[in-house]
Amino acid sequence: MDWLMLIAAGCCEMLGVAMLGRLQRDRNWQTFGLFLLGFGGSLLLLSQAMKTLPMGTAYAVWTGIGASGGAVLGMLLYGEGRELRRIICIVMILGAAVGLKLLG
Q1: Which helix (H) or strand (E) holds 67?
Q2: If we measure between CA atoms, which residue out of 44, 41, 42, 16 comes closest to residue 31?
Q3: How far apart are CA 49 and CA 6, in angstroms?
Q4: What predicted TM-score, i.e. pTM, was given to this entire model?
Q5: How far is 102 from 10, CA to CA, in rounded Å?
Q6: Could you tell me the pLDDT band of residue 89, with boundaries at 50, 70 and 90?
Q7: Are 12 and 49 in contact (CB under 8 A)?
Q8: Using CA atoms in the order 31, 45, 90, 97, what is the torsion angle rounded to 10 degrees?
Q9: What share of the chain has pLDDT > 70, as a percent?
């Protein structure tokens, strides 16, 4: 259950990042509310997951999901570059997060 909360925390982080990008274009209460919901939910779920998971592992996985998810969302929603080198780096981040889970 802790790993599911950690993955959900990473997904909420991605929502917060996506809404941060959207706030640059659309300054309205709905976007701001989703921004707060994303980052607030992310921190809440992370803190719950860290009650039983090691802090270093939980934080590394959470930031890995958020960073790689944010990069993918940037490619899909905001037209950021899709070079092979960039995609390989995203895969390496996710691979490191999976490695931490397998070792921890």
Answers
A1: helix 55-78
A2: 16
A3: 6
A4: 0.84
A5: 18
A6: very high
A7: no
A8: 180
A9: 99
- Virtual CA dihedral for 44, 42, 28, 82, nearest 10 degrees? 180
| Alpha carbons within 13 A on the beta-carbon side of 45 | 21
Range of the domain at 84: 1-103
At residue 63, φ and ψ (nearest 5 deg) are: -70, -35
Can you give the pLDDT at residue 38?
A: 97
Please state the domain count of the chain: 1
Can you tell me the distance from the alpha carbon of 41 to that of 6, in angstroms, rounded to the nearest whole number?
Answer: 11
Tracing tokens 């958020």 back to the chain, one arrives at 66
Tokens of 31: 């976007």
